[in-house]
Specification:
227 residues, 48% helix, mainly alpha, two-stranded parallel ribbon, two-stranded parallel sheet, 11 helices
Length: 227
């Protein structure tokens, strides 16, 4: 055990070629931020700082971000000896990576431990499934066979009206609105009733992209009004 923590304490600089003054050591050392759990502050973090200051004269990092631990459903620390750990790949295979991510970032506060319940992964998977089904239902019922039917806030036409598409060409020059095809004057600032549900879902998908990235990326790849 002593040998393990001793060799680990040398990790910030020994992996970069120390004691030789290699290009990697000059460029990457010292680093900036260490992210770790509070249970190894003394065993590893303090040892790295002491060893680095002794051998290089510089601390290995200037900031330590300390987070809580993921425990089992009984509140015990996960370990190989107890056999109560989880394999993230197996959980992701069974429930999906989005469900696993959503489970880990909800229901807890920064710095505190959290208990891992497999049942919550199932609930998060069901939630993601509802989001995707709602997205599919909306896309199935949107009548957007031409650019006039697209919500103006997200279409190329709408971006041009806001000045964002200035100097750019319409990527769909052969697609004309109903008003242009009929020769009638196109109404100005007329609210498209489909803008509300499409906008709600698109903006909601943007917010959820950091916690349900795979589901939301699939939505954006399928949604014709999210360009």
């Amino acid at each position: 055990m002593l040998d393990t923590w001793f060799s680990s304490a040398l990790w910030p600089f020994s992996t970069l070629g120390w004691p030789e003054q290699t290009p990697d050591l000059k460029y990457f050392y010292p680093t900036d931020v260490l992210v770790t759990g509070y249970d190894i502050i003394f065993f590893w973090v303090a040892s790295m700082i002491f060893s680095a200051c002794e051998h290089t004269g510089k601390p290995p990092f200037h900031t330590v971000f300390i987070h809580g631990l993921v425990r089992d459903d009984k509140g015990s620390k996960m370990s190989k000896s107890l056999g109560n750990g989880i394999d993230p790949l197996e959980i992701a295979e069974q429930y999906g990576a989005d469900a696993l991510r959503f489970n880990l970032i909800t229901g807890n506060s920064p710095g505190n431990d959290m208990r891992f319940y497999t049942e919550r992964c199932e609930a998060m998977r069901n939630f993601a499934n509802k989001i995707w089904n709602a997205s599919r239902f909306l896309m199935m019922n949107l009548t957007i066979e031409d650019s006039a039917s697209c919500p103006r806030s997200w279409s190329w036409r709408g971006r041009c009206e806001r000045g964002e598409g200035k100097g750019a060409e319409d990527p769909r020059p052969d697609r004309k609105s109903r008003a242009e095809r009929s020769g009638a004057e196109e109404p100005v600032n007329k609210q498209n009733p489909q803008e509300t549900p499409a906008g709600f879902l698109t903006k909601g998908a943007t917010i959820k992209r950091s916690i349900l990235p795979f589901v939301q990326n699939l939505y954006f790849s399928k949604n014709p009004v999210s360009d």
